[in-house]
Known about the structure:
The complex is a heterodimer. Chain A is an alpha/beta fold. Chain A folds into 2 domains: 8-67, Arc Repressor Mutant, subunit A; 79-183, Glutaredoxin (3-Layer(aba) Sandwich), CATH 3.40.30. Chain A contains 9 helices and 5 strands; from the N terminus they run ααααβααβββαβαα. Chain A has helices at residues 8-20, 28-39, 44-54, 58-67, 87-91, 94-105, 147-158, 177-182, 189-195, and strands at 79-84, 118-123, 134-137, 140-143, 170-171. Chain A has a 5-stranded mixed sheet with strand order 2-1-3-4-5, covered by helices on one side. In chain A, β3 and β4 (140-143) form a beta hairpin. In chain A, α2 (28-39) packs antiparallel against α3, α3 (44-54) crosses α4 (58-67) and α6 (94-105) crosses α7 (147-158). Chain A starts with 7 loop residues before the first helix and ends in a 5-residue tail after the last helix. By secondary structure, chain B is an alpha/beta fold. Chain B has 3 domains: 14-222, NADH-ubiquinone oxidoreductase 51kDa subunit (Rossmann fold, 3-Layer(aba) Sandwich); 233-317, Ubiquitin-like (UB roll); 322-428, NADH-ubiquinone oxidoreductase 51kDa subunit, iron-sulphur binding domain (de novo design (two linked rop proteins), Up-down Bundle), CATH 1.20.1440. Chain B has a 4-stranded parallel sheet, with helices on both faces. Chain B has a 4-stranded mixed sheet with strand order 6-5-10-8, with no helix packed on it. The radius of gyration of chain B is 22 Å and the shape is globular. Chains A and B meet through α2, α4, α5, α8 and α9 of A and α7, β3, β5, β10 and α14 of B. The structure holds flavin mononucleotide, iron/sulfur cluster and FE2/S2 (inorganic) cluster. Iron/sulfur cluster binds at residues 165, 183, 337-341, 344-345, 382-384, 386-387 of chain B.
Amino acid sequence: MAAFTMPDEAVRWIEATIARYPDRQAAMLPVLWAVQREKGWISPDAMVWVGDRLGCSASAVQAVVRFYTMFDEAPVGRWKLQVCRTLSCELMGARAIVDRIREQLGIEPGETTPDGEFTLQEVECLASCGTAPMLQCNFKFYENLTPERIDALLEELRARTPDPDDVEPVIYERPDAEAYHAMFPRAIEPAAGAREGEVA
Amino acid sequence: MQRGLDRPGESHVLEAYEAAGGYRAIRKALGMSPEAIIEEVKKSGLRGRGGAGFPTGTKWSFIPRDSDKPRYLLCNSDESEPGTFKDRWLLENDPHLVLEGMMVAAVAIGSHLMFNYFRGEFTYPLARWRAAVEEAYRKGYLGKGIFGSDYDLELVTHYGAGAYIAGEETGMLESLEGKKAFPRNKPPFPAVEGLFRSPTLINNTETLATVPWIVENGADSYVQYGTEKSRGTKLWSCSGPIGRPGVYELEMGYDLMEFLEGDLGGMMEGVELKGIIPGGSSVPVLTPEECRGAKLDYEGLRERGSLVGSGGFIVIGDNMSAVDCLLNLAHFYAHESCGQCTPCREGCGWIEQLVQKILDGRGTQADLETILRVSDLMAGKTICALADAMAWPAVAFIKKYPQEFAALCAEPVDMNELTAAVGRHDHILPRAS
Ligand SMILES: Cc1cc2nc3c(=O)[nH]c(=O)nc-3n(C[C@H](O)[C@H](O)[C@H](O)COP(=O)(O)O)c2cc1C
Ligand code: SF4
Ligand code: FES
């Protein structure tokens, strides 16, 4: 346990945050966020530390960490690419976005590149459905994506350093009909056939 | 109902908000009795914009005034219903409007501590919100004696960490108490026993953002908009292969097809309309025939067998099969079920597996009937409405696009029998009351 420490400034922030709530444990999520922001992930030692601060057991902390999808129990890549896969995004080409990242990075959703640069995940609706398809990269949204924009983005990210305060979304111009259809090559024959009443 | 929008790029700043008449409603409310504020909101006919559509003023009146426990106000900015992005829009562009609505609600129920719960992914809306809250504290609009009155009002901004179910109101209470977001059995209702067992009013971001206009201009003005039973306006988050997606504020009762073909710029070139999910992924899909003549309001959509829900208007084109759509949603609900209730935990996963099987070309008529039966066993039989939110799309997609499902099955499907099976289970879908 002694191994885990947080910088003084973070501890001060944490104590001030706890004081704003009627109950210490209520500060669980902000405190876990502070830890993940500092360390990149939440280790078992960190859970003990957080439990001590909040007056609850490490297992209670672990249950919370496991329940919420944004907390990482293991280190992730420098850039965490979370592509929305939910309906509005799939309707606008999300599969083409995931496919392009898979091809470019040689990893499947849930995996991290061997050099530790990128983690790829598929996530659920991020409230950017009108500017779909989209992804969240660390703390920033990229919206109205196309496979070409993915190529440029990956290149740009390799050269950049993550900044947790950089949160303003990048909203590209909406892909036109041609760019849209290029992302949507999937066959639809069964449905078309069905509409013509070709089934028994 | 929005303000400061004639100052694009600045609408989130306090000065722009006040220049457009902001923070008049809370000043007025501080001079009114709590009962009078609640009465005004009741008279406006405002209904919750978070999904369930519960009358807002009535909910406010459930908060007991005689309890010696503190009363809390909780704004639900978790916005996670697929297809919905209007709360994000409000928080980014008009945070002071949301804040003012929260203040009015707090004063009406006698709360001195309010919370705004953001979904964890909302880093940018959160940054805008924090800046707005700081401005308000600096001006004395929050803190001790707000607006020079003797009313103290504090605010805590909270944020989640990725869980759709934290948007369900009692799941949110658990989450805010630092636990897994497991929805609670009701009763007791949050109004009586909510956050830290104290009376808690939970309203959606958009609901609260509508309140300042009502209090400032009066319920009589608000009811001039909309229809007899669906008052005022509503935000619609529009997505899919359409000309102009985005957030639109519409008067209740607006014609659906006029909206699609006019304001939204119709379908994208080369795509035909297959259907529309009008109120977020949880509500039943409408076919083009059902869309024609439909009115965008509570009764209008119910009459067509769907709901206003959160106003997530998802337009589906003919380039995606209904089976793919249902698989996408089943994956979502299976992933997001908190697992407390057996019918929901097992049902969502089962439906996902069966739809996948059909999509893989291995499905049968029996599988389709199983999906219908499982949906029937889920709806209305669990702690929260997530199970219904899976059951409705499942039954609706099979009912409305049976040919697409049948065409993918490994063996020929008897359409008459499938129709009969739908008829045995579609009583779970919303209908005109
Ligand atoms: C599974 C589930 C998810 C929900 N998610 C949200 C949400 O993200 N935002 C929201 O405001 N309401 C959500 N709700 C509805 C809330 O439970 C609650 O009805 C609402 O916040 C009340 O506010 P209102 O009366 O102003 O609509 C959800 C409900 C369910 C069953
Ligand atoms: S219905 Fe589903 S999501 Fe809701 S409490 Fe039960 S298991 Fe959890
Ligand atoms: S469906 Fe992808 S952001 Fe909503």
